[in-house]
């Protein structure tokens, strides 16, 4: 079962990844063929050129292929010139640059400035769209790029196509990140509002999950080039949002992980969580100081927020993957679901971080957001299962509590009746016997005329019936089990059959019995017969004419199981629940003590009895006793 669910979840997540848009291939691949190469000239502070004409006439230009773009700055380089030979194109065309790495960009076409952008923050990924005119065919497009970051240059992805088509692509290129991020922020807000209704036991894990989802939204929004492209003047706010979200997300993830799986071997998860909290606090302080000083410590802060925290993230995700591999051996479905989501997220994050550092920090992180989506999906599935499980648990607890209260009330009633029965048995039986004796003497002294009613005999019979009721009370109060033996069920049922068959024949029914001789229990023979006769007698009376009472027995799981089923009128749930209660009976004549005594006898013999019935179909009683061969020879039945 666990393996099937594991496979289903894996296939669902794999299908989602197949239908997700490929960030690296969101633009037409055929458009790159129109510009296959360009040239770049690096500048230092000492040899910077002011205008493109001077740059075009200078030496030091390097050829760059579109398949292998160079965006890592040489040592001491602070800016660069790039020139691109435009191919022939038709009317209403434009050129779309997917990845330009720089803080300040100026684009010249035909010697005139056609685009200019300056950024004071350190987000250096730009997307630029330039309209083209017919007379620009064959001209050189010149760019001047400046940056204090480690990246500077032109990346992959240059489209020359219809300007209107490119405008639509330009407008929605990174819009999905904003939609996803806003959705996660909204979900976290709703969770925060709902947290006021939770008790303390669920509040910790709920808030930890909330503070995972909230920064995920901040990460998606803060890292998306969409806002930097269209609202670049607020870039420092977006970058601060990304950093703060990262500082909140990493320790929250470890807290949530620790709440689910524990502290790990020698408390390694707990120690790493403390390290994350300490470093995140230090990072927030460094961010505040860098902002207050107008980016005076930007190089140091870049090391804090990118280089070193990336190493901590690698260690964190590797630790998570190792622990999750161990958790997958656990057959618990919740652990498997969460392990899949965390494993996908951690694996994608580790792969992208490794690729980022292997490419000298020129690789654009893109797949991590889909790893986060897979992680959140697993959390949603897990939360749904937990809510469903809690709902079932509440129903089970309510049912158990109701049964417990019913059993408690029944026990209290039984205790009262036991005390009353003992009192009646001792205080009433003797006067009844004296009265019976006196009536017998009076009967002998008086001659009863023929064809007249014998009132003495009627009175004596009623006294005998009262004595029988008192005996039932006494049996219920304290069933006598002085003589306890190993009983062969086949022999016991043979004796019961001899007693009960005449009654069945009289009622127009019949008995079908199948009891093997190998079944043995520990108990008192006379009391067992009394209990069985009571149940079978009730089944025969329920036939209301023709019908059959089937009796069969077998051994199951160290217990002897006896079934007594009839094809009578059956009972509804209301009557079925009240069976065994004192004075309850559905017969026109009866005290309700027979089944009460039967329940008591079976209980004292360490057995259980259950009834199931359907109106118009019949009733079946199932009795279970411990098998004799699994009871120690010196064991005694408790009274």
UniProtKB/TrEMBL annotation:
Chemical reaction(s) catalysed: ATP + protein L-histidine = ADP + protein N-phospho-L-histidine
E.C. no: 2.7.13.3
InterPro entries: HATPase_C_sf (IPR036890), HATPase_dom (IPR003594), His_kinase_dom (IPR005467), HisK_dim/P_dom (IPR003661), HisK_dim/P_sf (IPR036097), Sig_transdc_His_kin-like_C (IPR004358)
UniProt keyword annotations, A-Z: ATP-binding, Kinase, Membrane, Nucleotide-binding, Phosphoprotein, Signal, Transferase, Transmembrane, Transmembrane helix, Two-component regulatory system
Gene Ontology molecular function terms on file: kinase activity
Enzyme class name: transferase
Claim: Iron-sulfur is one of the keywords in the record: no
Domain Histidine kinase per the UniProt entry, residue ranges: 423-629
Signal sequence, renumbered to the chain: 1-26
Top-rank taxon: Bacteria
Name recorded for this polypeptide: histidine kinase
SUPFAM superfamilies: ATPase domain of HSP90 chaperone/DNA topoisomerase II/histidine kinase (SSF55874), Homodimeric domain of signal transducing histidine kinase (SSF47384)
Species the sequence originates in: Paenibacillus terricola
TM segment ranges: 178-198, 205-226, 246-265, 277-294, 300-324, 336-354, 366-384
Phylogenetic lineage: Bacteria, Bacillati, Bacillota, Bacilli, Bacillales
Pfam families with a match to the protein in the record: HATPase_c, HisKA
């Amino acid at each position: 079962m666990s393996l099937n669910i594991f496979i289903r979840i894996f296939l669902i997540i794999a299908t989602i990844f197949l239908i997700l848009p490929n960030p690296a291939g969101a633009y037409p691949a055929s458009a790159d063929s129109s510009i296959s190469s360009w040239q770049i000239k690096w500048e230092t502070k000492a040899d910077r050129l002011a205008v493109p004409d001077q740059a075009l006439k200078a030496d030091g230009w390097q050829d760059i292929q579109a398949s292998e773009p160079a965006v890592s700055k040489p040592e001491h380089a602070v800016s660069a010139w790039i020139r691109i030979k435009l191919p022939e194109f038709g009317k209403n065309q434009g050129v779309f640059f997917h990845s330009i790495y720089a803080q300040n960009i100026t684009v010249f076409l035909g010697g005139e400035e056609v685009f200019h952008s300056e950024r004071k923050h350190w987000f250096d990924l730009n997307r630029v769209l330039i309209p083209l005119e017919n007379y620009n065919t064959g001209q050189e497009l010149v760019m001047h790029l400046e940056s204090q970051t480690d990246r500077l240059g032109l990346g992959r992805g240059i489209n020359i196509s219809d300007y209107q088509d490119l405008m639509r692509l330009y407008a929605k290129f990174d819009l999905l990140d904003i939609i996803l991020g806003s959705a996660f922020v909204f979900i976290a807000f709703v969770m925060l509002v709902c947290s006021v209704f939770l008790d303390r036991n669920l509040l910790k894990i709920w808030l930890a999950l909330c503070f995972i989802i909230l920064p995920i939204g901040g990460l998606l929004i803060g890292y998306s080039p969409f806002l930097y492209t269209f609202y670049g003047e607020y870039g420092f706010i977006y970058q601060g949002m990304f950093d703060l979200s990262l500082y909140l997300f990493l320790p929250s993830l470890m807290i949530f992980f620790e709440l689910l799986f524990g502290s790990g071997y020698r408390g390694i998860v707990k120690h790493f969580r403390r390290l994350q909290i300490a470093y995140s606090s230090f990072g927030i302080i460094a961010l505040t100081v860098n902002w207050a000083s107008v980016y005076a410590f930007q190089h140091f802060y870049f090391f804090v927020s990118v280089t070193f925290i990336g190493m901590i993230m690698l260690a964190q995700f590797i630790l998570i993957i190792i622990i999750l591999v161990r958790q997958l051996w656990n057959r618990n479905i919740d652990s498997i679901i969460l392990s899949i989501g965390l494993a996908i997220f951690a694996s994608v994050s580790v792969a992208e971080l490794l690729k980022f550092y292997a490419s000298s920090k020129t690789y654009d992180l893109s797949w991590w957001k889909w790893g986060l989506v897979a992680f959140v999906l697993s959390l949603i599935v897990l939360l749904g299962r937990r809510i469903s499980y809690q709902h079932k648990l509440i129903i089970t607890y309510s049912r158990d509590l109701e049964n417990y209260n019913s059993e408690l009330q029944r026990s209290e009633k039984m205790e009262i009746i036991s005390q009353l029965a003992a009192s009646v048995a001792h205080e009433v039986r003797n006067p009844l016997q004296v009265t019976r004796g006196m009536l017998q003497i009076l009967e002998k002294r008086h001659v009863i005329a023929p064809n007249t009613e014998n009132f003495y005999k009627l009175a004596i019979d009623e006294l005998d019936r009262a004595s029988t009721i008192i005996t039932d009370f006494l049996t219920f109060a304290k069933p006598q089990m002085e003589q306890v033996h190993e009983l062969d069920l086949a022999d016991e049922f043979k004796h019961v059959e001899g007693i009960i068959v005449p009654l069945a024949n009289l009622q127009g029914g019949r008995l079908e019995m199948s009891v093997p001789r190998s079944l043995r229990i520990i108990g008192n023979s006379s009391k067992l017969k009394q209990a069985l006769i009571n149940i079978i007698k009730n089944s025969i009376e329920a036939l209301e004419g023709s019908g059959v009472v089937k009796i069969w027995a077998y051994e199951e799981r160290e217990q002897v199981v006896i079934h007594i089923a009839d094809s009578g009128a059956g009972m509804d749930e209301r009557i079925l629940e009240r069976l065994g209660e004192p004075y309850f009976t559905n017969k026109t004549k009866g005290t309700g003590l027979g089944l009460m005594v039967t329940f008591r006898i079976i209980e004292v013999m360490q057995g259980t009895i259950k009834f199931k019935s359907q109106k118009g179909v019949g009733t079946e009683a199932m009795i279970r006793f411990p098998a004799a061969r699994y009871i120690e020879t010196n064991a005694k039945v408790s009274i």
